[in-house]
């Protein structure tokens, strides 16, 4: 009986964590949004214990910030955070492919599924369907991560990718999506991995990170402009 209860509670804990993560990634729980265990428990009609555990799980993943007095808050990632995420992923992936025979094991039977994820991600990106894009993009990188022999590195890369989408989603909904923001190289990357062409893998990943950092630069400039106080008009100024 106790085992069954534990399984049920753990399953409920995971379901609540997944549902809340989806809400954050969809932008329905925006950065800075605050809530308590009691509010979420009432929303889902469950007890406080699995909710509390789910919220602490999401906090450990870096998606929520917790305060013992105010409850939980959707974490607000800055442009500097996003740039650091991109740099961290680049350094880790570069390290993996310095000696891929010892760190990466490509399973050919898994490539067909990853190719489908890649094609769907690119199709969603070009069609401007952000919700579909996020889902397929996360599956794409998660399945690629299964080729990494060190599971801690694979988990770290997945965590960073989720955090990057939490940073990006509300900005993309606000500003829109175009080729200057989105990266369409999923298919090229998976084909290079399938051929074990390490030079092309590096080229594809360099394109990916360059895209991310270029967007970070534009966001930083735009957000600095929005936060700057209005300059006084000088004589002869034309609007």
Short description:
With 239 residues, this protein is mainly alpha-helical. The chain has helices at 2-25, 37-44, 48-60, 79-96, 100-103, 108-127, 130-145, 151-175, 186-194, 198-227, and strands at residues 34-35, 64-67, 71-74.
Structural shape: globular
User: What is the CA-CA span between the terminal residues?
Assistant: 74 Å
Oligomeric composition of the shown chains:
single chain
Number of helices: 10
Overall mean pLDDT = 86
Strand content: under 5%
Largest sheet properties: 3 strands, antiparallel
What is the H/E string? HEHHEEHHHHHHH
Key descriptive features of the protein:
3 strands, about 5% strand, mainly alpha, about 240 residues
Q: What can you see in these coordinates?
A:
The protein is mainly alpha-helical. Helix content is 70%, strand content 4%. Strands 1-3-2 form a 3-stranded antiparallel β-sheet. A hairpin with a 3-residue loop joins β2 (64-67) and β3 (71-74).
Question: Layout of SSEs?
Answer:
Layout: H1 2-25, E1 34-35, H2 37-44, H3 48-60, E2 64-67, E3 71-74, H4 79-96, H5 100-103, H6 108-127, H7 130-145, H8 151-175, H9 186-194, H10 198-227
Antiparallel strand pairs: 1-3, 2-3
């Amino acid at each position: 009986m106790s085992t069954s209860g534990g399984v049920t509670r753990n399953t409920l804990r995971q379901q609540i964590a997944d549902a809340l993560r989806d809400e954050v990634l969809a932008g329905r729980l925006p950065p800075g949004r605050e809530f308590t265990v009691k509010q979420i428990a009432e929303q889902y009609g469950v007890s406080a214990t699995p909710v509390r555990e789910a919220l602490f799980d999401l906090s450990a993943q870096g998606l929520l910030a917790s305060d013992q007095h105010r409850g939980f808050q959707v974490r607000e990632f800055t442009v500097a955070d996003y740039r650091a995420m991109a740099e961290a992923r680049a350094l880790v992936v570069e390290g993996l492919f310095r000696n891929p025979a010892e760190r990466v094991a490509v399973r050919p039977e898994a490539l067909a599924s990853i190719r489908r994820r890649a094609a769907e991600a690119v199709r969603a990106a070009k069609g401007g369907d952000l919700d579909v894009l996020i889902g397929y993009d996360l599956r794409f990188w998660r399945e690629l991560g299964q080729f990494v022999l060190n599971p801690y590195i694979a988990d770290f890369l997945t965590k960073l990718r989720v955090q990057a989408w939490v940073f990006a989603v509300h900005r993309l909904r606000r500003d829109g999506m175009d080729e200057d923001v989105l990266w369409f190289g999923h298919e090229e990357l998976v084909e290079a991995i399938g051929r074990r062409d390490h030079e092309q893998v590096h080229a594809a990943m360099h394109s990916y990170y360059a895209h991310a950092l270029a967007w970070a630069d534009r966001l930083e400039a735009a957000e600095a402009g929005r936060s700057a106080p209005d300059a006084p008009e000088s004589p002869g100024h034309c609007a």
